[in-house]
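Example record

The entry below shows one chain as it appears in the dataset: sequence first, then structure tokens.
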Amino acid sequence: MSCLHKRPKRTNSQEQAFQEQVKKVAQENGKRLGLEGDADLQFLLNGGELIKIRSTSWKKNRFFKLQEDCKTMWHESRKIFKKNQTFSIDDIDSVRMGRQSEGLNKHTDTSVEEQCFSIIFKARKKNLDLMAPSREEAKRWVSGLNKIINNLHNLSRQQKSEHWIINCMRKADKNEDNKMTLKELKHFLRQINIEVDDTYAADIFKRCDKSNSGSLEGSEIKHFYDLLTHREEIDVIYGKYAETEGQMSTRDLLNFLLNEQREQASFEDALKLIEKYEMDGTAKEKKHMTKDGFLMFLVQEEGSIFNPAHKHVYQDMSQPLNHYYISSSHNTYLMEDQLKGPSSTEAYIKVLMKSCRCVELDCWDGANGEPVIYHGYTLTSKVLFRDVIKAIKDFAFKTSDYPVILSLENHCSVDQQKLMAHHLISMLGDALVTKPLGNTMPTNFPSPEELKGKFLIKGKRLNKLDAVFTNSNTIEEDTVSEEDEAADCKENGQKAKSKKSKIKLAKELSDIVIYCKSVHFNGFEHAKDNQAFYEMSSFKESKAFNLAETSATAFMHHNMDKLSRIYPAGSRTDSSNYNPVPMWNVGCQIVALNFQTPSKEMYLNQGRFLPNGFCGYILKPEFQRSLSSQFDPNTLTRGPWLKRKIFHVMPSSYQKSTRTSKNPLWTLWLESEIYGVPADNASKETHHINNNGFNPMWNQTFQFNIQVPELALVQFVVEDYDSTSQNDLIGQYCLPLTSVQNGYRHVPLLTKRGDVICSAGLFVHLMLLDAQ
């Protein structure tokens, strides 16, 4: 039973009929999800008692159940004004079996491990830590929720949109009689962000009310749905190519693929698409595609802007490690700002699950001899070093097999450093690289392929790496200079209490720094003459940007045989970010950003690492790897990097979304942007469309002249336009220009935190052509 609003009292027969209707609705939604008759789905629909855990002393019994829409969880609450609470399945990031959250680890005993599970939400919503009465019930909750999450994720955009619209219709049916009055129709239209005047609403209603009963039901609601979801732009495209009995023959579809989509397609390819997406049996027998089949094909991955061949690892992963951009996090332990925000193991889990491959550990002496991680000399909370290492071990390779770099900022005493080394070695085991690969002193980095499933430690080292092979590795401890980032923080006055510029380094910790030895940067010539390949420098953003502007080619050559790490200025106390693109333009690999802060810079980072299986490693362009290259992104001297292109973008339409803006109705506005070398940076904007957040159409054409396509990112941003204040973000999507597919394409939209908005997207026409 839905618990979203109060209902009038029913007689026993009315209640029985209502419950039958609820059951029928749940069955329909289960079928739509591909879970018809599924025992785990039925278990969730029946619901059950779970123990909600917030602390060692706060553990309360609460009833949970899945609502009949099969995408909303309801649970009871003892709050006076919020007795019934719900959350959407779409808001769940993951469901973890066992005591795999910070809260459950802290507040429950190991004896109940198999009864526990956690619901992890997207954005900053707190985890829901739960305990079932038995191991079997916990497994069924986890299995059922994961089935729904996976099946919702695997629905096509068209199916997700239908699911959303149908459920909006049900919510508009206030008296739950499966009919829609004119008043309910107007309420529904406002729910899906369409503003119409009373005359137009009455006209739609009259056209659908064939029975003249004053309400829509059955086939009349279906007629209304068809009118609502009709897509004029699809009619035009389909009509142009459907030249066989009013439908697309296999040859017609092939012509569309060749002429509009610019694909290297064959007759057999077109036939496979008909077999895969055409739902009409008669048309399929004729090897034809109807308009519905054509729309179904366009909203699948074959019709996506993102090249499906790039969804998997497709690049050469056998190059040296420094030949790749590496997805990297700064102050990884923080959930919020760096003055008073909480530190948490959950922060590490979140970035690792986003395929971040370099995480930062800011280590300090803790109580009881145990090192802790936090932002020193601030009010940020502390988390145990050993808990962080356990979380990293458990989640490092869930979404990517490629190596993870642990960047240590070490402020600990020698004794606690020894304990850090012990935790790293004992907990990470054989996955920790403790000596160079092979039996001889290396002259270059191993590849990501060779380092699959491995951890690398970045930090200070007491001696050269060749000491491993010459038996001269006998120094027990010695002083080394502080990490550059720690010293820079002092300059900003954040660590005025600390007066040391050098620290004592324990041999045990020094010995496990193999391929990422931290050294101070003293200029490119000095680095070329004196630094070994495994000695790397960290650059604060202002210094890095200055070098990228004044010595771009030298910076790029430096990165051809060494690693560089860039980090945000210490003055960014709000954990804001810098633009990573100029750093990638000169070949910097570890461009560390504050993942905890949603921002345009993080959208670009997500776009950069979207291809290649979202594995956290992107092979740099050849001209950033060849020593003979004289590439300078600022001057663009002639060379193989100049592959001038013209990129045509025609934003056609936007489809459907739930309302998240502060305004009751949306005035939509679209911006298309290019980020790359300075000459390629550009932005184009559509006109804004008032009071239609459901299906506005623009049909404007933009042209971008691209000089270096291999470094260019394209971003689409949809906003709720406001002439008097800052626009509200509706959704955005970013990807490398080299991963864009030509032709008519659907563009998914992501929230500010990078999660897919299931019921929204853009339809665009794209063409990337060689410049004349």
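Notes for this example: The CA atoms of residues 432 and 455 lie 5 Å apart. The domain at 232-303 is CATH 1.10.238.10 (Recoverin; domain 1).
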